[in-house]
Amino acid sequence: MDKKWRIGAVSYLNTRPLLLGMEQSPFKERIDLIKSYPAQIAQDLLDDTIDIGLIPVAIMPLLSNPQIVSKYVIGTEGEVASVALFSQVPMDQIEKVYLDYQSRTSVALAKVLLTQYWKKEVEFLKATEGYMNEISGTTAGIIIGDRALASLKRFEYIYDLGLAWKQYSGLPFVFAAWVANKPIPAEFMEVFDVATGYGLTHLDEVIALIPASEQVYDLHKYYTENISYVLTAEKKKGLDGFLKLIQL
Protein backbone atom coordinates (compact mmCIF):
# COMPACT_ATOMS: atom_id res chain seq x y z
CA MET A 1 0.00 0.00 0.00
CA ASP A 2 1.30 3.47 -0.85
CA LYS A 3 2.54 5.63 1.98
CA LYS A 4 0.00 8.06 3.44
CA TRP A 5 1.61 11.46 3.63
CA ARG A 6 1.05 13.47 6.81
CA ILE A 7 0.00 17.00 5.84
CA GLY A 8 -0.32 19.81 8.40
CA ALA A 9 -2.54 22.75 7.45
CA VAL A 10 -3.77 25.90 9.09
CA SER A 11 -7.48 26.05 9.84
CA TYR A 12 -8.05 29.69 8.84
CA LEU A 13 -10.30 31.20 6.18
CA ASN A 14 -7.25 32.05 4.08
CA THR A 15 -6.38 28.36 3.65
CA ARG A 16 -9.83 27.17 2.52
CA PRO A 17 -9.03 27.54 -1.21
CA LEU A 18 -5.85 25.48 -0.76
CA LEU A 19 -7.67 22.72 1.11
CA LEU A 20 -10.71 22.22 -1.11
CA GLY A 21 -8.88 19.94 -3.56
CA MET A 22 -7.40 17.94 -0.70
CA GLU A 23 -10.74 17.37 0.97
CA GLN A 24 -13.02 16.97 -2.06
CA SER A 25 -10.94 14.85 -4.48
CA PRO A 26 -9.46 11.34 -4.59
CA PHE A 27 -6.18 12.92 -3.42
CA LYS A 28 -7.56 12.83 0.14
CA GLU A 29 -7.03 9.05 0.16
CA ARG A 30 -3.27 9.62 -0.11
CA ILE A 31 -2.94 11.89 2.92
CA ASP A 32 -3.66 12.30 6.59
CA LEU A 33 -4.68 15.95 6.99
CA ILE A 34 -4.01 17.57 10.35
CA LYS A 35 -5.38 21.06 11.04
CA SER A 36 -4.24 23.49 13.71
CA TYR A 37 -2.96 27.06 14.08
CA PRO A 38 0.32 28.09 12.37
CA ALA A 39 2.72 27.85 15.33
CA GLN A 40 1.49 24.34 16.17
CA ILE A 41 1.87 23.13 12.58
CA ALA A 42 5.39 24.56 12.66
CA GLN A 43 6.16 22.61 15.82
CA ASP A 44 4.73 19.44 14.27
CA LEU A 45 7.15 19.80 11.35
CA LEU A 46 10.06 20.42 13.72
CA ASP A 47 9.05 17.30 15.66
CA ASP A 48 8.71 15.25 12.43
CA THR A 49 5.12 14.30 13.23
CA ILE A 50 4.10 15.61 9.78
CA ASP A 51 5.83 15.35 6.39
CA ILE A 52 4.68 18.66 4.89
CA GLY A 53 3.28 21.66 6.71
CA LEU A 54 1.77 24.98 5.76
CA ILE A 55 4.06 26.74 8.19
CA PRO A 56 4.99 30.30 9.18
CA VAL A 57 8.07 31.03 7.07
CA ALA A 58 9.89 32.45 10.11
CA ILE A 59 10.64 28.94 11.35
CA MET A 60 12.37 27.83 8.16
CA PRO A 61 15.83 28.75 9.56
CA LEU A 62 15.18 26.34 12.45
CA LEU A 63 14.73 23.36 10.12
CA SER A 64 17.71 21.23 9.11
CA ASN A 65 16.66 20.76 5.47
CA PRO A 66 13.81 23.18 4.67
CA GLN A 67 12.36 23.10 1.19
CA ILE A 68 9.28 24.79 -0.21
CA VAL A 69 7.41 22.03 -2.03
CA SER A 70 4.56 23.91 -3.69
CA LYS A 71 4.10 26.97 -5.87
CA TYR A 72 1.18 28.00 -3.66
CA VAL A 73 1.68 30.08 -0.51
CA ILE A 74 -0.20 32.40 1.81
CA GLY A 75 1.10 35.77 0.64
CA THR A 76 0.04 39.29 -0.15
CA GLU A 77 0.93 42.00 -2.64
CA GLY A 78 0.01 44.71 -0.11
CA GLU A 79 -2.96 44.97 2.23
CA VAL A 80 -3.60 41.50 3.68
CA ALA A 81 -6.50 42.43 6.04
CA SER A 82 -5.97 39.46 8.37
CA VAL A 83 -2.60 40.35 9.93
CA ALA A 84 -2.48 43.70 11.65
CA LEU A 85 -1.51 45.75 14.66
CA PHE A 86 -4.73 46.81 16.40
CA SER A 87 -4.86 49.78 18.75
CA GLN A 88 -7.20 52.31 20.31
CA VAL A 89 -4.55 55.05 20.01
CA PRO A 90 -2.32 56.19 17.11
CA MET A 91 1.13 54.67 16.57
CA ASP A 92 3.03 57.46 18.33
CA GLN A 93 1.14 56.76 21.57
CA ILE A 94 1.58 52.97 21.65
CA GLU A 95 3.75 51.78 24.55
CA LYS A 96 3.09 48.02 24.76
CA VAL A 97 2.23 45.39 22.15
CA TYR A 98 0.74 41.94 22.69
CA LEU A 99 2.20 39.38 20.29
CA ASP A 100 -0.26 36.81 18.92
CA TYR A 101 0.84 33.34 20.02
CA GLN A 102 -0.59 31.68 16.90
CA SER A 103 2.05 32.69 14.33
CA ARG A 104 5.79 33.19 14.56
CA THR A 105 6.00 34.93 11.18
CA SER A 106 3.53 37.66 12.12
CA VAL A 107 5.33 38.23 15.42
CA ALA A 108 8.71 38.45 13.69
CA LEU A 109 7.30 40.76 11.02
CA ALA A 110 5.73 43.01 13.65
CA LYS A 111 9.07 43.34 15.44
CA VAL A 112 10.86 44.20 12.20
CA LEU A 113 8.30 46.82 11.23
CA LEU A 114 8.06 48.40 14.67
CA THR A 115 11.81 48.84 14.93
CA GLN A 116 12.81 49.41 11.29
CA TYR A 117 9.76 51.05 9.70
CA TRP A 118 7.80 52.77 12.46
CA LYS A 119 10.96 53.40 14.55
CA LYS A 120 9.12 52.52 17.74
CA GLU A 121 10.49 51.24 21.03
CA VAL A 122 7.74 49.30 22.76
CA GLU A 123 7.40 46.65 25.42
CA PHE A 124 6.43 43.31 23.88
CA LEU A 125 3.92 41.26 25.85
CA LYS A 126 3.41 37.53 25.45
CA ALA A 127 -0.22 36.95 24.57
CA THR A 128 -2.38 34.17 25.95
CA GLU A 129 -5.98 33.19 25.23
CA GLY A 130 -8.27 36.20 25.55
CA TYR A 131 -5.51 38.79 25.18
CA MET A 132 -7.56 40.78 22.66
CA ASN A 133 -9.70 42.03 25.55
CA GLU A 134 -6.55 43.60 27.01
CA ILE A 135 -5.95 45.82 23.98
CA SER A 136 -6.84 49.27 25.29
CA GLY A 137 -5.25 52.60 26.09
CA THR A 138 -1.60 52.61 25.04
CA THR A 139 -1.49 48.80 24.83
CA ALA A 140 -1.90 47.47 21.28
CA GLY A 141 -1.84 43.93 19.91
CA ILE A 142 -0.99 41.85 16.86
CA ILE A 143 -4.00 39.80 15.76
CA ILE A 144 -3.93 37.34 12.88
CA GLY A 145 -6.25 35.13 10.89
CA ASP A 146 -10.01 34.95 11.23
CA ARG A 147 -9.90 36.80 14.55
CA ALA A 148 -8.23 39.73 12.80
CA LEU A 149 -10.95 39.88 10.16
CA ALA A 150 -13.57 39.86 12.92
CA SER A 151 -11.73 42.72 14.67
CA LEU A 152 -11.58 45.16 11.76
CA LYS A 153 -14.53 47.19 13.07
CA ARG A 154 -13.63 46.85 16.72
CA PHE A 155 -10.55 49.04 17.01
CA GLU A 156 -9.91 52.69 16.26
CA TYR A 157 -6.51 52.19 14.60
CA ILE A 158 -5.47 49.30 12.37
CA TYR A 159 -1.97 48.98 10.94
CA ASP A 160 -1.96 46.29 8.24
CA LEU A 161 1.36 44.42 8.35
CA GLY A 162 1.23 43.32 4.72
CA LEU A 163 0.78 46.90 3.56
CA ALA A 164 3.44 48.20 5.95
CA TRP A 165 5.94 45.61 4.67
CA LYS A 166 5.23 46.66 1.08
CA GLN A 167 5.76 50.32 1.99
CA TYR A 168 8.96 49.45 3.87
CA SER A 169 10.54 47.01 1.40
CA GLY A 170 8.77 47.61 -1.89
CA LEU A 171 8.13 43.86 -2.10
CA PRO A 172 5.22 41.48 -1.50
CA PHE A 173 5.24 39.26 1.57
CA VAL A 174 4.93 35.52 2.20
CA PHE A 175 3.40 34.58 5.56
CA ALA A 176 3.28 30.81 5.14
CA ALA A 177 4.43 28.19 2.66
CA TRP A 178 4.11 24.45 2.18
CA VAL A 179 7.44 23.25 3.55
CA ALA A 180 9.06 19.86 4.05
CA ASN A 181 12.15 19.09 6.12
CA LYS A 182 13.24 16.21 3.88
CA PRO A 183 13.11 15.30 0.19
CA ILE A 184 9.61 14.65 -1.20
CA PRO A 185 9.16 12.57 -4.38
CA ALA A 186 8.56 14.69 -7.48
CA GLU A 187 5.50 12.65 -8.43
CA PHE A 188 3.80 13.43 -5.12
CA MET A 189 4.72 17.12 -5.31
CA GLU A 190 3.09 17.32 -8.74
CA VAL A 191 -0.26 15.89 -7.61
CA PHE A 192 -0.01 17.90 -4.39
CA ASP A 193 0.16 21.13 -6.42
CA VAL A 194 -2.84 20.07 -8.50
CA ALA A 195 -4.84 19.43 -5.33
CA THR A 196 -3.81 22.65 -3.57
CA GLY A 197 -4.47 24.75 -6.67
CA TYR A 198 -7.95 23.37 -7.37
CA GLY A 199 -9.82 25.68 -5.01
CA LEU A 200 -8.20 28.79 -6.47
CA THR A 201 -10.11 28.18 -9.70
CA HIS A 202 -13.31 27.26 -7.84
CA LEU A 203 -13.62 30.15 -5.37
CA ASP A 204 -17.42 30.26 -5.55
CA GLU A 205 -17.47 26.64 -4.43
CA VAL A 206 -15.02 27.41 -1.62
CA ILE A 207 -17.11 30.33 -0.36
CA ALA A 208 -20.38 28.41 -0.62
CA LEU A 209 -19.02 25.78 1.78
CA ILE A 210 -18.18 28.33 4.47
CA PRO A 211 -20.98 28.93 7.00
CA ALA A 212 -22.47 32.42 6.94
CA SER A 213 -21.51 32.88 10.59
CA GLU A 214 -17.83 32.63 9.62
CA GLN A 215 -18.07 35.10 6.74
CA VAL A 216 -17.12 38.17 8.75
CA TYR A 217 -15.45 39.77 5.71
CA ASP A 218 -16.02 39.88 1.94
CA LEU A 219 -14.40 36.55 1.11
CA HIS A 220 -14.28 37.09 -2.64
CA LYS A 221 -12.28 40.27 -2.03
CA TYR A 222 -10.15 38.46 0.54
CA TYR A 223 -9.25 35.61 -1.83
CA THR A 224 -8.66 37.76 -4.90
CA GLU A 225 -7.35 41.09 -3.57
CA ASN A 226 -5.89 40.56 -0.09
CA ILE A 227 -4.37 37.09 -0.22
CA SER A 228 -2.04 36.28 -3.13
CA TYR A 229 -1.44 32.57 -3.48
CA VAL A 230 1.26 32.06 -6.11
CA LEU A 231 4.94 32.13 -5.16
CA THR A 232 6.24 34.59 -7.75
CA ALA A 233 9.83 35.75 -8.16
CA GLU A 234 8.96 39.00 -6.37
CA LYS A 235 7.46 37.10 -3.44
CA LYS A 236 10.61 34.99 -3.26
CA LYS A 237 12.66 38.20 -3.05
CA GLY A 238 10.42 39.45 -0.26
CA LEU A 239 10.73 36.14 1.56
CA ASP A 240 14.51 36.03 1.25
CA GLY A 241 14.79 39.62 2.45
CA PHE A 242 12.57 38.96 5.45
CA LEU A 243 14.49 35.82 6.47
CA LYS A 244 17.76 37.75 6.31
CA LEU A 245 16.34 40.49 8.55
CA ILE A 246 15.13 38.13 11.25
CA GLN A 247 18.47 36.28 11.34
CA LEU A 248 20.53 39.44 11.92
Structure overview:
- This protein has a 6-stranded mixed β-sheet with strand order 2-1-3-10-4-11.
- The chain is built from 9 helices and 11 strands.
- Helix 1 crosses helix 6 (186-198) and helix 3 (104-117) crosses helix 5.
- 42% of the residues are buried.
- It folds into 2 domains: 5-76 and 172-246, D-Maltodextrin-Binding Protein, domain 2, CATH 3.40.190.10; 83-169, D-Maltodextrin-Binding Protein, domain 2.
- The N and C termini lie far apart (46 Å).
- Helix 3 links the parallel strand 6 and strand 7.
- The protein is α/β, with parallel strands linked by helices.
Q: What would the CATH topology of the largest domain be?
A: D-Maltodextrin-Binding Protein, domain 2
Strand proportion, as a percent range, falls in 15-25%
Largest β sheet strand count, sense and barrel closure? 6 strands, mixed
What is the tally of helical segments? Answer: 9
Relative helix content: 25-40%
User: How would you describe the shape?
Assistant: globular
Q: Write the H/E string, N to C.
A: EHEHEEEEHEEHEHEHHHEH
Structural class: alpha/beta
**Widest sheet: strand order?**
2-1-3-10-4-11
- Average predicted local confidence, pLDDT: 94
Regarding CATH, which class of the largest domain? Alpha Beta
CATH homologous superfamily annotation of the largest domain: Periplasmic binding protein-like II
Q: Please give the CATH architecture of the largest domain.
A: 3-Layer(aba) Sandwich
Number of beta strands: 11
Calculate Rg over CA atoms: 18 Å
Terminal CA distance reads: 46 Å
Number of domains: 2
Low-confidence runs = none
